[in-house]
Design a protein that fits this description.
Elements lengths: L3 H14 L7 E4 L9 H7 L5 E7 L2 E6 L4 E5 L5 E5 L9 E7 L2 E6 L5 E5 L1 H7 L14 H8 L6 H6 L9 H11 L12 H20 L40 E5 L2 E5 L8
Antiparallel strand pairs: 1-6, 2-3, 3-4, 4-8, 5-7, 6-7, 9-10
């Protein structure tokens, strides 16, 4: 599932290519991905423009020129591609937003969605999301205050979007590795030093992953050499059975609360 770095990479690229271009057509191949009837989009979006693209956690918000919002969540397997019909990948598309010759293709929305909302509806839809670790208002002390008193495993806390928005399976494991902590470490057992390492690790991992395009498997458009470069930089995620880059131990793949988890038992500890 795309996480904060992947969605921020998409936001940056979309902001370079679709802003203030008139929407000429909307194609809906899967009406279940919408919160309104397909005809509503087909009739009301042509002629409108996207004036701003915002990201909140794992969501993208397209600010429309008429004041409404399109709220996109790719969920598991969702991808975006921007280009012409000749350039599009050989994948089924659920929604296409047409900007003249080019189109924004939304693919893999088996669980994902695109909702047309008012400003008030958008605020309500995102109201339960927690703060983001890269927010300029976040600090080590605010992080520690939010974590202290919580129970359960470190990974379970990180993937809970009401605690911190934007982190999922991949980056929770990468952050834990960077901090030298096991992802199944009990949060309530972490001391001040461990929490400080965790906060620093989160900032380092999320910034680095965002700067090199996250781990998406498909380019955003032809000529895109940024998207997906983090895929080969993961230190533990999806590397079960391989050697740890830090200590040479063997990375384990296990399951924690129904989620796969990757860590090195030799150099990651519970505090």
């Amino acid at each position: 599932m795309p996480e904060l770095p992947e969605m921020e990479n998409y936001r940056r690229l979309l902001s370079q290519h679709i802003l203030n271009k008139p929407i000429t057509e909307v194609i809906v191949n899967r009406e279940k991905s919408l919160n309104v009837e397909a005809d509503v989009l087909r009739q009301t979006l042509p002629g409108a423009r996207i004036i701003f693209v915002e990201r909140r956690g794992k969501h993208l918000l397209f600010h429309l020129s008429d004041g409404r919002r399109l709220l996109l969540h790719l969920m598991l397997g969702g991808l975006l591609f921007y280009g012409t019909e000749d350039q599009r990948p050989l994948r089924s598309t659920q929604i296409e937003i047409v900007f003249g010759e080019n189109r924004l293709y939304m693919m893999g929305l088996r669980l994902g969605y695109l909702h047309l909302l008012s400003v008030k509806e958008t605020e309500a839809a995102l109201s339960k999301l927690g703060p983001e670790l890269l927010d300029r208002r976040m600090s080590a002390e605010r992080f520690k205050e939010r974590v202290r008193g919580r129970r359960g495993a470190l990974k379970t806390m990180f993937v809970n979007q009401t605690v911190f928005a934007g982190i999922g399976n991949c980056y929770s494991d990468e952050i834990a590795f960077q901090a030298g902590l096991r992802p199944d470490s009990p949060v309530q057992g972490l001391g001040d030093d461990a929490l400080g390492r965790l906060y620093e690790a989160a900032g380092t991992v999320l910034r680095n992953a965002t700067d090199i395009g996250g781990y998406m498997e498909m380019p955003f458009m032809e000529g895109d050499t940024v998207t997906g470069r983090y895929n080969d930089r993961c230190l533990v995620y999806d590397r079960g059975g391989e050697a740890c880059y830090r200590c040479g131990g063997t990375i384990l793949k296990e399951e924690l609360s129904g989620r796969k988890v990757f860590y090195c038992p030799d150099c990651q500890h519970d505090r």
